[in-house]
Design goal:
- It is a single chain.
- By secondary structure, the protein is mainly beta.
- Helices cover about 5% and strands about 35% of the residues.
- It is built from 2 helices and 31 strands.
- The protein has helices at about 1-20, 105-110, and strands at about 30-40, 55, 60-70, 80-85, 90-95, 100-105, 115-120, 130-140, 150, 155-160, 165-170, 185, 195, 200-205, 210-215, 220-225, 240, 245-250, 260-265, 275-285, 285, 300, 325-330, 345-350, 355-360, 370-375, 395, 425, 475-485, 485-495, 500.
- Strand 24 and strand 25 (about 355-360) form a beta hairpin.
Length: about 500
Amino acid sequence: MTSIRKLLGLFMTITLVAFALPAFAAAPPTKQYGLDITSSPPPPYPQTGGGAVVQVPAGGGTVYWTISNQTASGGNSAIGSFVIKKAPGLKISNPVGPTGTVFDLATLAATGDLKVSGVGPLVPKQDSGMHQVTINFTLTPEDPCGGPSTVWPPYVVVTTGTFSSTTFAFTTNNGPPVLPTNQTTTFATGTCTMTITAPSSAAKNVAFSINVKLNGGSGGSVTLSSSDCILTAAGNPYAVTTAAAGTDIGGLSFSNDAGTTCHLTVNGSASGYGSQTVALLMYAGQLGCSDGPPANNYVSSLGSNDFTLDPYSDNTPWVGSGLTSGWGVRRGPNTDTNACVKLNCTIALNDLTKTITAICDKSVSPPQHASFEYLVLWPAVSPDDNGWTEKHTQLSYLTANPTPVYDPSCKPAPDGTGGCDYIVGLACAKNDNTVGSAAMPTIPNKPPYDAASAPQSQYQSDGLNPPQKKALACVAQQGWTAVNGLVQYWTIFIDQSDFGGRLP
């Protein structure tokens, strides 16, 4: 009985010891393979390509793919085939391998998977025989704007025999010693570009359009925004989907005042097309060429629907109207045969300096050689001691300063010495805004227009006898009316250039 109790005690001790033993991690897979991707043929086994990530050219290129058997030893551990599955956004083509390698091109065409057999067999490291095989193929991004970065082991299946169910697990342990290998491909920056066709200007609250063309790739989305102005089409940013062939994006507008430079950014970075910014100079409004109805060639300081200051008026409704000042403008037909295109224009009257400036953006297609007729109702002034002779209206055109500069030390009116942005205005040859250059006077070869007076070159006579050079702006009418002891002048100009007018 004593012996039985001792045996039972020994059995229980062994049992307790067995349960007290620490747990061990699962043994690593016995069948393992290595993968080394290089941009050129790798060195002989067991060397590797060095581990550098392979960057493929943007449009695709050749990669070298080395599969090695990293199993230590053991029967039924030879690699006979493998599959490289299609990775997102990539295409495999033109596979090449050692003699005897079999590529399933039908499957490649149907699914994008490259099935490779007839290799090796590749035997474990401690066995004698062939341990690795290198194939190469063309790897191409499906979107030439830029291919993805891909880590490949999840897309590789390595098997014994010919695509058997016995698979190998990936390992980077190819030692001893362990040498660096690479399993990643990336692509150089894509060749996709963006071409933007946009106007150089816009009118406040007037819709305009741009054309965005995505060159290369399959198109995508772009986002429109402005960092310094209010884009009033559909908020800021304004998302638009475009096509590779080019898309007109219309209905855009800025609500900023004339003289502001608005920057419009078109961002296609999310689709691989980068980002571009264009600048548009803001103008006050637009002028066409039609007298109507409805007219699109008229605007005034009172708006487009108030014709009190219409220079085409048959009478003078502005006289005695009670207006302290103001202006109206009509655009006539082009002075050449080019079709009329609406122009962005800004007209500004400064009551303090008694100057008016008119600037239009003519950088449109076809080019616009426009003619304009302006009525300016000047602020009332004190009567001159010698009548109205001192109120000989001055003109400016084609000056280096977009807004003409009046220099008090320079006397442009009839005895002027020249060199001024303004010069005494000549009377028009015709009071008609529809006859082109026939309305413009010839510049006389006398002060202040002659060479001796040294005016700016655009104002100087050609010196011929008789002179041939014509002015680009002129005075068609001028009048005045008494207002409470003051005199209020009004002037009608015809202009065929960016223009400035001044009442001395």
